[in-house]
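tool_call: predict_structure(chain=1)
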Amino acid sequence: MNRKQLYDICGEMLEKSGNEDYEFDTLCIFQDTLHDKYPLFRPAEEVSAEDEKAIREMAERRSTGYPLQYILGEWEFYGLTFRLSENVLIPRPDTETLIENVLEICRRQGMKSPKIADLCSGSGCIAITLKKMLPDAEVSAVELSDGAVDIIKENSALNSADIKIIKGDVLKAETAAMFRDMDIIVSNPPYVTAEEMAQLQKEVRYEPEMALYGGEDGLDFYRAMTALWKNSIAENGWLLYEYGDGQHSDVEKILIDNNFNNITLTRDLAGIFRTASAQNRR
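tool_result:
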């Protein structure tokens, strides 16, 4: 069977499953399996039996709603490649806004070698990206899940990023006590509400619940982490959060209640308030 024939079969399978991005997903599967960025430039080229089997299996799995990123085993974030598994949240373009916020603060404040901690690090995409963008920074990734810690180690090696990887519970005082005089603490914590958890899209249900569920109103981590970690931030240091759609006012209030000021709420590329940055004034 040639490439075009197999491509059409897989595309039709995904389209019938209700996948609105079936053309993109089919192309990604072909690119990954055939190691060819433009697999349809040679539509009449025969596909080996081994590759055909692999492509069909990947397309069938995707047709069930299993996330494309987990099928491929890696995904791009801020121009870097990150390995993935079901132990970690899939990196999303929304989170790149958080990276931009940190870089802007460092430019504005003239910070060349800031001390940065990424809490609830997951795949390590935030910590590793910041280390790549700020080579002289001292960057730590804090994560509780054993499976996620393993992925962070893989991604750190993959991207040649020399970061500190710390297994710890960000909601425990002993973890926060390990950090002092941090210039920047950044986090994309769990923020999905109980109501939203019950209505998650099929694909999202494959992602780890501990990386998604943020309590009844989605704000449990923000309340606990802000109160706990503010003492780990240097005078005039910064705390930055990503949060869910519609949570900006609540997150801002939590920051104000904990004596942070100079608070900036930033929209993502879709125009949705997505991140908050706040300065620590003790």
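agent: The CA atoms of residues 245 and 272 lie 6 Å apart. Proceeding to next step.
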